[in-house]
User: Fold these one by one.
Assistant:
Number 1:
Amino acid sequence: MKILYFAWLRERIGKAEETITFPPGTETAGAAMAHLASLGEEYAYAFENPSIIRIAVDRKHVPHDAPLGEARELAFFPPMTGG
Amino acid sequence: MKILYFAWLRERIGKAEETITFPPGTETAGAAMAHLASLGEEYAYAFENPSIIRIAVDRKHVPHDAPLGEARELAFFPPMTGG
Amino acid sequence: MVAPVVRVQAEPFDAAEESRLITAGRADIGAVVTFTGLCRSEGGSLAALELEHYPGMAEDELVRVSTEAIARWPLQAVTVIHRYGKIAPGEPIVLVVTASAHRRAAFESADFLMDYLKTRAPFWKKEHFASGAEGGWVAAKTEDDRAAERW
Amino acid sequence: MVAPVVRVQAEPFDAAEESRLITAGRADIGAVVTFTGLCRSEGGSLAALELEHYPGMAEDELVRVSTEAIARWPLQAVTVIHRYGKIAPGEPIVLVVTASAHRRAAFESADFLMDYLKTRAPFWKKEHFASGAEGGWVAAKTEDDRAAERW
């Protein structure tokens, strides 16, 4: 699955995007985030406070317990500060 | 005293301004309006519904019971519809 | 203390230019809100609006409401322009521009200024109909009074 | 049904021109509200803001909030433009323009759009300081969330 990171998540992980195959049983956006957090120190740092991370599935905001379903693009980012 | 009329008050009275000497004892803006209403048919028509008339003394909104004091300019007009 | 820019004029105004004058050469403004009120044709039935005003008092009242807005919100600039005379459908009648470091102050003060000037500034609208039939004076709306009472 | 005009771009925008495009050639609009959000220098300490965005989703979200505004208020036009990339103090970041027959709808919907896009459109601001010291990501404000909850 295509994974995107923005703002300080991107900086902490050190990349803007990558392709990840999640282990079987990874059914929600939050579970996908937990898996990513286990991939190394930089990921653990990026996701150290999971409750504040916003997630988008196929470019739509979703809650952490949203099913991944047939998602093609999964994005993680901090609370937005546009406008 | 200089008297000004605006909008349909001006049209009903048939003039935009005039100078009036009020009878002794005319102490409030409302009393001045009552005197004007007695000056003829066109005045009676203009002031037929006194409660809706707005009054300004020296270019400031005042209530009907405001004292005339040393006023130099007294204006009568309908509720405003600018903006 | 910010001094409001207030003009009562027959000529059209340039909302963009007024806004530019406010922001030009400074970097402390975070939010600019402009409100432009325009003459509507009412489905083609209206030929023009004629705006009568009380010269002198009109300017005074616009300065008073602007000064009140400056006292109530942390504003960096306020411009209020109101036209008088004949105004054709599609033409602008009134402009309010407010600038502040923060968006809430800019929004609220522009909204307040429009509500207040509608019920306090001495202007009166008369309609001229496209049919040639004699037009009448626009009646004040109680909803405008209620809007002004919000503040 | 009104179609919103939404653009996400690096280039500056011309608020006046966007407003002119909305009103040109029509006489049914009574009120136009524009909101311009600008980059503040914070007393000279800020060299620039860098705006990162999520291409594709940023446009989608701006269309979604605009469409929601059109569903909630009787609007005749909505334009939303949001810039990304480096933006110097004094430069505009975001523009919202709403047009309606009536002023309340124009004011409220512009206010709503700004509140909503601040908490939903995927943009992030990073500060670059004039001192050369490394800047940080701007933290989201809880007051922005509260503002969005008003609607």
Note: The mean pLDDT of chain A is 97.
Number 2:
Amino acid sequence: MKKTGYYGEWGGAFIPEVLYETFEELNAAFTQVKKDPSFWQEYVSLMSTYSCRPTPLTFAENLSDHFGGARIFIKREDLNHTGAHKANNVMGQGLLVKKMGKKRVIAETGAGQHGVATATMAAKFGLECTIYMGEEDVMRQRPNVFWMEKLGATVVPVTSGSKTLKDAINEAFRDWVTRMEDTHYVMGTVCGPHPFPEMVAWFQSIIGKEARTQIMEQFGKLPSRVYACVGGGSNAMGVFQGFLDEKTVELIGVEAGGKGLDSGQHAARLAGKDASAGVAQGYKTMFLQNDDGQMMDTHSVAAGLDYVGVSPILTDLWKSGRVRFAAATDREVMEALDLTMKKEGIIPALESTHAFVQAFKEAGDMNRDEALIINMSGRGDKDIFTIAHAFDDPSWKAFITQKGAEYAS
Amino acid sequence: MKKTGYYGEWGGAFIPEVLYETFEELNAAFTQVKKDPSFWQEYVSLMSTYSCRPTPLTFAENLSDHFGGARIFIKREDLNHTGAHKANNVMGQGLLVKKMGKKRVIAETGAGQHGVATATMAAKFGLECTIYMGEEDVMRQRPNVFWMEKLGATVVPVTSGSKTLKDAINEAFRDWVTRMEDTHYVMGTVCGPHPFPEMVAWFQSIIGKEARTQIMEQFGKLPSRVYACVGGGSNAMGVFQGFLDEKTVELIGVEAGGKGLDSGQHAARLAGKDASAGVAQGYKTMFLQNDDGQMMDTHSVAAGLDYVGVSPILTDLWKSGRVRFAAATDREVMEALDLTMKKEGIIPALESTHAFVQAFKEAGDMNRDEALIINMSGRGDKDIFTIAHAFDDPSWKAFITQKGAEYAS
Amino acid sequence: MHLNSQIETALADPDKKILLMTHIVLGYPSLEVNRQVIKQMVENGVDLIEMQIPFSEPMADGPVIVKANQDAIENGITVKECLEFAREMTETHSIPFLFMTYYNILFKYGVEDFFKKAKDMGITGFIIPDLPPEEGEEFFKLTDKYEIAPIMIYAPTSTAERMQELAKYGGGFIYCVARKGVTGQQTDFDEEFDAYIKKCRDNAKLPLAVGFGISSKADVDYLTERADIAVIGTKTIKLVESEGVEAVGPFIAGLR
Amino acid sequence: MHLNSQIETALADPDKKILLMTHIVLGYPSLEVNRQVIKQMVENGVDLIEMQIPFSEPMADGPVIVKANQDAIENGITVKECLEFAREMTETHSIPFLFMTYYNILFKYGVEDFFKKAKDMGITGFIIPDLPPEEGEEFFKLTDKYEIAPIMIYAPTSTAERMQELAKYGGGFIYCVARKGVTGQQTDFDEEFDAYIKKCRDNAKLPLAVGFGISSKADVDYLTERADIAVIGTKTIKLVESEGVEAVGPFIAGLR
Ligand SMILES: Cc1ncc(COP(=O)(O)O)c(C=O)c1O
Ligand SMILES: Cc1ncc(COP(=O)(O)O)c(C=O)c1O
């Protein structure tokens, strides 16, 4: 009996029997395209004509000088179509769906970013599309819901559990077990049952491949450190893969420290002490769960990091010490965001800003002849409701109050 | 006495005497960089590491098949940093400002797009920044104001005149005549006194250069037609310059038809019959003005097209028949936007959608072995307040009402 | 006693053309109600009961059971309480009791500890919908040792080959999921279903239980002679919610 | 009569060490008020009056005059009315009247037609702040023909070279803008200002008018002997707004 899709002791495919054949089919299709160089070519070509790949690597001269240490480079996934690295994975899976001949895609979404990306891909490929999104998130992220609907997708608010990302994942699986023949589940991050972690990591590896070439061109040598925020872990795995086999490059994953690692209100699985090994949502990893194995509520100012599990691949790299983990608190994130906007004219997503926080903490202690790369997974202007709220901006509040009053009357 | 900066009888530099030396200096600096190939290199390199140039040319297969005629290609200026072609001009002027050694930039903004781009450039180049924006626009476009402020700019609401774009331009000039020694006025479009039209057109020509190369690569021959929306005319001039000297390529500028060319509520200077030659805001062109020469109120669902004047270069190309002009009504724009989102997973800005409207009207009558290019000047997600409002989306209204109530309480 | 022989015995009863298995979500709405419901079930002829230990991520369940899981957890039910309740039930009633839950509950408890404890409590079978044999190395090593039958699940999407593979691991009976989807929706009993059950029968030595969407005497009648066990899940939860505990007895009595 | 000789005559008056020019925005708040204000001005010794024909885009003006332009247009003032009003003024009062406006007003009217009409109405000078000589080919061809003096503007940023260039085109007097910026803000009269005015004088044959921020007797005193004409703009508009038409006479009377 084959036990596949493990990274050390992490991963696997804990799936209901009814999906067994679907996964066989998916594994076969994925295995085939993965070894077919023309598929990767097709993927790269799609991403360079429909999205904006290669995304640039931006030298952040002002920030570098501000901290006075390592030269800071920013990998600009925010410039992807739909505004985040999520597009890489989604467009890749879209190509696979076309190959498999399926007619419909479903996806979970938390922040809404993956939902918008999936709805976009579905429109582009002419697929029917349903997005599951926790009811809480639907309320918090209405702009993204609006776009998903306008792109032709059906958005289903999920009312079970904590009404957030993990519940949306459960609900997507419930759809899939009902209608697997014509439907593909576009998992949004490097989590879930095998082959999803492998597949998502593969598509996202385009980030690291590019970043490696770019830093060699622009800086002449490898960076000393690479930082990425970690929700499910897809943007981190994406960029890390460009440097995994270079021992001199330190890789740092930054999780949501929320209100502090001791507050119980965070989403730090690997940087904190609150997580333990578990099996849920189809895979084995470190989960934020209680002693009975019930998943706990998590918190982050960044909806996209607010998740109980984490990529099994990253958990393995954490265990082996290859990737170091840190956490950034909500407050630190708002400060780093402010600094980045003012110094570089760049607005990272709240998720991405977590990576900036840790890089900022360390840059000053590094040498000026070293480089570090921050993976900017997405752009922050999608988050205006959250960001303006977090900055407690009075004019924004007045604007919304007035708009609200107009609509109410 | 030299009379420079004319395109046929259009253009010129109708500036107050106090700015004479400033313009001399600007002309000298611009003339110098324009003939220095290394400056253009520096510009291209900046745009390819800080923004995402070359922006892709996307083949819109679904739309092409939907209309069954010309193959439709979309030039993706939406993938620029800050989300529109405005970045090209602004970053270019930013480099020039550095060369001139000025410490402060000012700009007008209508939709807010040029303001955000300028604030971004100022942050990147370490310049002080003040943005003039009509009070009406400040109220309508609060998200952009929020970002400008977060990027470190001061946004000054302009309360004179119609409190919109043209008044912001006047106010920027009033700032400039007060403080020209250390200040550069970053004009946002191919209008205003010479050398602005020439300068903005030059920086924006990067769009057409790329598009030409890309269409040859992807389609193997020149397109039959190229469409661009025309506010001031900068994105249109940008893309048209790639094809101006090719007689076989028809160039179509699309203006804001608002509520219809006969309604008096539009901003069609060249496609309609309501405009006449005039001199204002420092240059001579076709203006929407009354018999006394007073500027009229204009209207468009797209704030960025809602302007009384138009590029003198385009007016000349219109006079000579080289560029054909058409108008798209607000209603047509909303329909084309809906279709584009659903068919291609692409969300053009309301401004850009005007170009889509006209292309859609004509694509079906063209042959399948012809190509057309639509310049997608920016992305629409910045316009959620306007778009959701225009679609009269009930969930959006409910969301805003609820948020408003939260803030009010 | 082994679940296999418990079932054999039950099936030997000439009055019973088909056995009935019911489903309980522990702690929903309370253990006290569970207690009363189980009593009614047993007194009215239910042959086996699967007790679901709530899990926060019940991926394979439909809305009614999902909500029951969630409410039970919110009301504070613990795995320990579930285990103790199981002991009380197996001591009170002589029919076989099984645990249905998701793998994380075992994993977090310690898989072998959980087996040991469950065995102590008199549980004779486990239904773990998210544990395919490929992932069950540790689990399947323990089933014999602790004499707890691992109930294997067949689905309408399973190939004959896959069924035979699964059969190698199974004990007690085979749980044939009547249709695609999650618990709680209606199932159409048609020719396709018949073909599916025939395929299950052809590829299994153990008795067949059919679950998902069984809610009436008509359903049970249809299954009689086709399957060995009819599984009533969501229906009784809804019944208790809408008509109270007392409705359970008559409902069960009327099924067969 | 030519503006040049009008000014010469005025300057010949030994009682007048400096001439006063005032500014009116036509139609603000109404032509009737303009009429009264002008009467008060003339009666109290103003030597020249520049009447601004409102324009919707008064780029070189400050907030007070901008608002006056805008309100006048909103109240419906037309270019035609302005021209007729000009005739009435030149017929009523014997001092020189100039038009100040932006170029589009002329351009849209037809530049030559506008000259002809203005001449008919008795206007003797034009101040067009957005028309540098480089753009004035048509305009400057007409100034002699219609005997309307083109008032050239010097700014603190103008080089000597530029002043001499401008001087070639000018008639009547040179309008020296006292400082950078728009109309209506206070000007600092300091050494830098003196050097600037000296530079103007060195590079002009025509009399010098100084405007922008002149609002008090002290200002006028300072300008006396430095310049030939003091221009009072925004100040009287504000005065009429806050204290009414009657305040204008005493204010003007007190300036010199
Ligand atoms: C911009 C952005 N960055 C990061 C994440 C976190 O996901 P992952 O860790 O899979 O990259 C999200 C998820 O929504 C996101 O939207
Ligand atoms: C996205 C976009 N497109 C077009 C325009 C119109 O400007 P122009 O005609 O100069 O390209 C604007 C102006 O704000 C804009 O934001």
Note: Chains C and B do not touch (no CB pair under 8 Å).
Number 3:
Amino acid sequence: MTPLVEAVGVTKRYGETVALDRAGIRVMTGQTHALVGRNGAGKSTLVSILTGLQAPDEGEVRFGGEPAPRLADRNAWRQRVACVYQKSTIIPELTVAENLYLHRHDLNRFGLIRWGLLRRKAAELLATWSVDVDVRLPAGELDVEQRQFVEIARALSFGARFIILDEPTAQLDAAAIARLFARIRTLQEQGVTFLFISHHLQETYEICDTVTVFRDARHILTTTVADLPHAELVAAMAGEAAGLAETSSRTAVPSGGGVVLGVRGLTYGDAYREIDFQIRDGEIVGLAGAAGSGRTELAETVAGLRAADAGTIEVAGRVPRPGSVPDALAAGVGFVPRDRHHQGFVPMMSIADNATMTVPDQLGEAGLISGRRRDRLARNLIANLAIKTPGPGLPVMGLSGGNQQKVVMARALASDPRLLVLITPTAGVDVKSKEFLLGKVEETAAKGTGVLIASDELDDLRLCDRLLVMFQGRVVAEMAAGWHDHDVVAAMEGVRLDA
Amino acid sequence: GSGAGGGTAASGGGKPVVGVDYPRSDTDFWNSFIKYVPQFGAENGLELKTSNSQNDISKLTANVQSLISQGVKGVVLAPQDTAAVAPTLQQLNTKKIPVVMVDTRPEQGDAYMVVRADNRAYGEKACKFLGEKLSGKGKVVMLQGDLASINGRDRTEAFNTCMKASYPGITVFGEATNWDGAVASQKFQTQLTANPDIKGVYMQSSFALSGTLQVLQQRGLLVPPDDPKHVFVISNDGIPQELKEIAAGNIDATVSQPADQYAKYALHYTKAAIDGKTFKPGPTDHDSTIIQVRPGLLEDQLSAPLVTADGATYAGVASVKPGDSSLWGNNLGG
Amino acid sequence: MPERTLTPATENAAPERERPRIRLARLRDFALIPAIIAIAVVGQIVNPIFLQGDNLINILQTMSEISLLVLAQTIVLVAGKMDLSLESTFGLAPGVAAWLTVTAGSGAGLGLLPGAWSIPITLAAGALVGVVNALLIVRFGLNGFIVTLGMLIVLRGLLTGISGGQTFFNLPASMLYLGSALWLGVPASIWLCLLLFAAGIVLLGFTKYGRALYAIGGNVDAAKAAGIRTDRVLWTALVGASVLAALGGLLMSGHLASVAAAQGDGAIFTVFAAAVIGGVGLNGGKGTMFGAFTGILLLYMIQNVLTLAGVPAQWIQALNGGIIIVALMLSRLTGGKVQE
Amino acid sequence: MPERTLTPATENAAPERERPRIRLARLRDFALIPAIIAIAVVGQIVNPIFLQGDNLINILQTMSEISLLVLAQTIVLVAGKMDLSLESTFGLAPGVAAWLTVTAGSGAGLGLLPGAWSIPITLAAGALVGVVNALLIVRFGLNGFIVTLGMLIVLRGLLTGISGGQTFFNLPASMLYLGSALWLGVPASIWLCLLLFAAGIVLLGFTKYGRALYAIGGNVDAAKAAGIRTDRVLWTALVGASVLAALGGLLMSGHLASVAAAQGDGAIFTVFAAAVIGGVGLNGGKGTMFGAFTGILLLYMIQNVLTLAGVPAQWIQALNGGIIIVALMLSRLTGGKVQE
Ligand SMILES: Nc1ncnc2c1ncn2[C@@H]1O[C@H](COP(=O)(O)OP(=O)(O)OP(=O)(O)O)[C@@H](O)[C@H]1O
Ligand SMILES: Nc1ncnc2c1ncn2[C@@H]1O[C@H](COP(=O)(O)OP(=O)(O)OP(=O)(O)O)[C@@H](O)[C@H]1O
Ligand SMILES: [Mg+2]
Ligand SMILES: [Mg+2]
């Protein structure tokens, strides 16, 4: 049987980085094929080659046994494959409706675009995904999750028989993921083929039948999902015999420690109201909540990105000026922002510059910067966080998504913070790295740093000593370690619990 | 230009090397000048090094440096900024390199000779011509050059002064045009809309020529002088096209700047300077007068003839007909 | 946030609340209309001539030639590029036509071809410039700003070279026609300008090609992913813009019955000012043709009012610039967004 | 890809492998050196004067004044903004000083203040312009390109206004000093230019402040989230750039012993060309001070060679532009990256 799509012996280099090294994949018709691998394994590179955005340096791509079309023939590619790329392909200036139907506008008999029809179709399409936005809004005004849905809805609306999804779930909350999976199952029944990339391995087990593992730019194995237990899958990805280490059970935080964060009566517009809580030295506190619950805004307020309308924040005994990141930084706050592309790093600057951006004073006297000192500091951070790079001088834009996230983490840790504020810190990070990053967080906490993690990923929250669940701008529940998943999910969705 | 080649041949038994910096190459007038210079250079037995300062005084300064490096024995300059040239003059003076200036007179500093026509006289001649033609009343538009240009300002001031003194019944609308034909046409059109009874136009340079004619034509005002709707137009420069238009009766007059004479006498005086000759104020052999502007600065004021269709005399200003063979605009072929 | 000031103070239900924002987005096209009305009122007060048909036609005619440059630049800007060389194409294209067709006796012409060739030559010269630009920018991936800056200088230099710095006169009749004819009593160049802008509005707002320009300007990778042949679209945009500039130059030459070596010199400042005041973004993907039109209209109205007001020559420029900045601030207030 | 040709064929250990890439990144700074050498060789062949000390000093002196504008623009560009008004500040700042200090008799001066005030006034005028720019751009969030385009026109207009279009001369001695003095036999303006560029290299490459500029130009939100006071940095960059422009204007005025109403007019084209050829990106966060210096040096060397070669005036401009485009293509080949 000829595979629906096949890549053979594909090599792709970026300068010295070998992103793909004689790698390949065979996707059979009707499969839902998972592609897994650690950050930088070359998955997205393969996607760009399979969708005709880039030509491989060596090797070839075949669709149904035929050689792939020329790169310039975009229409031929689009008939063969639809894709949700890892990098956003939303055009912020254009309306949501137009983004959905970009370059497939309906024309009237004069060859002019029928905006009204287009808008109606767009509204209907989004309604099927229960995304409630006005399609006339510029797409740039959507939040990350809505934008992700626009991408997904677009890719799935082509009627293509082969659809690639590169980490579609990284920006979605549980309910949204459920909606996506329901839709994928419907399409599976119609015989649509999927290539699915995700760092949430349980998702692979949930909807995929076949799995291909890439490691270090090479193809490692392809097998049916059922034949590959979780631990072996991780081992194949990581190249080690050992699977995931058991999460160390945290020792209880000594109750005598000082208060590192005190939040009193904090209110910010419609986002959240009258929030009170404290974090003690060495304590890890989770801030759970669905999209729009106000958790992100709250965390950003603590980090100094926003100024609250009312209430106070006290960090290690100091009250930083509201809305001032430098002040918060000086008070000892380290910060991992929500969207790394937006606020996390400067793509053209080197890893060293990005990682040390928060600590210019440590790099030299009198406003000068010693390149050697900076690189030494950066090498430490790179080693510390196991960032996969040839050296500290590489621009961050040359890193894979997960490694970029580690740079953002490095930036937060560089200042030896008293309080670490993390917003969805492991978005797009592979399992090993995730374990690793969270391990680092614990390590940091063990040295007495307080940690606030705002996330809706239960995996991120598992190491918390305490969990605050937010719903519609209020803290609706507080849970001690050892909570049950379903309680948290219920609380996040606003179901009243009589605890 | 002189072409490339051994710039080191400054000294020795060859011809004396003279540097000429052209002020710009984007107007008809200066292009004629540029055309004449090699011809008169050869006539005077000079080897020329040329450069072009493109209407930028700091380029002129740099160019003069280059000319000095190439060992010139005399320099011809035509700075369009008469104040900023002072340091350059000073430097040339200390190096004992004589300078002949064309078209403009330096505000400070010495030069061996200034060869120019009197720009104030241009404005005055234009004023008298229009004043007589309009019998001392009506509205006229003056399409000025650039406010930053000394020559333009001289023409403007002289025109205004003369109008106030001799023809108080005439209203003058002055419009700055940056020496730009499109701007001139636009402003003229606007003024004509606001004041349809405008009867005269003074263009301070030929750049505005065809645009002005087009506006008149569009409004049906391009009619012979005996028609009461006629608008009297006097231009400035004396390029061939102006002479042609005068002969055709489309415009009425122009003041002919002596581009050929500029080139001829600039190089003549440079040669004289190298030969160690000196001059005194007084009339010359070529129908002009040398005046002493201030100690150390002599100026040969070449005559700039008024050209009119009939060659008559206007308020004491004699004029020549457009076909006159003494006009540089009629001698461009060679 | 301007939204707050525009939204009625009462709290609306959530779906209702988005309305004003959308209405506002459409309004952004009309951001300059208040400024235009203000200038018109001031103009009328300053000089009652201002609103007379004659003067309005005068304004439109004087802007018609440059406005084609604005139109061309808007297309290029929307696609995320810039073309500074348009101002030189504006002079060079008709200059080449004049050079080849004007009889050798008068001025610098060669008189190689009959006058009827002048319009095709003008447009072809424009297209050729566009091809060179596109080759360097699209094919070789050079930076558009600096390529076209270089081209601006080269093309201006070429015009100076072929003309010897002189002005071409005695143009063939076909070159004069468009710039000087009257259609229904109104200059042909005004009709052409309005027609082309109308076509531009349709092109950018209602055709696949136009939307492809926005997509490319907004995010070229996304446009590629959506199946747009970005290179081909950019080629046509750059070549088309140069042809439009050549056409504008043709109108100007016809209007002035001559081609000066400096034709178009410095116009690019006005062109950018018009486009950007009119709401066209410099980073691509933003702005409309209608906005660009209001931008250039506003600038020429200001010029006209200042001339009619008889402002002393040395202060005209300062006032002109001051008014542009104020118009910009006004459009910021109306548009409501921090600009880029 | 140039990397391959530079990497030794042998496989090195991982820590060693980063070397070539970094060496290459540094090499990009020197992208123009081959072009500069080529021009020097051509110059020497064309005219043996070229490499004489006298002529080299001439080149450096001529570029010294404008080069301060390049320096200023580079700072602004790295921070992701643009300042077109620098060319007008270059004229206006010394113009204001001359206006206030030159005795009323000569030209347009008011003679209100003694000559010793002229330098402080020049710098203060520059700073004031910078403050207005920063206010409009940083504080009110207006688009920098169009604000400074407006300011370019306003400031030029102001200079025309106060001078009545005339040139100020008889400047006080203190204004003349920097532009005309010799230090160790070399014009002071050359020393100043080299010193300031050296300072600029240190500032951008080796200071906190410089890194902040790059960060802001590269991603302003990330810079903010990393605790950089972006507004404050942008304020100082814009004000500093204007002060540098004023200083450049002061040198020019001293050199020419006068302030013309057109001083600096059109210089912004050269400034952008120099910066961009020198590798400074127009979208922020890219380029080095050394690169910008090589850019302006190359441009002035080209000018000088063309003058020495005695190229006919009407072709100088075309050649000049052509060489710029070629230099750009060369730097593309050396730099190896598609530009923006
Ligand atoms: N444009 C680029 N320039 C230079 N290097 C790149 C570029 N794109 C990818 N790379 C490199 O290629 C390698 C593979 O990257 P790729 O994005 O395919 O990884 P990935 O498997 O998708 O990782 P992730 O799970 O983090 O998304 C990485 O080492 C990355 O640094
Ligand atoms: N997505 C869009 N992008 C840009 N402009 C748009 C968009 N949608 C609509 N417009 C503009 O909105 C205006 C109205 O468009 P149109 O007349 O097609 O809509 P409609 O009348 O509401 O719908 P219908 O076609 O159902 O009658 C047009 O000027 C069009 O340019
Ligand atoms: Mg990826
Ligand atoms: Mg409709």
Note: DSSP finds nine helices and 15 strands in chain B.
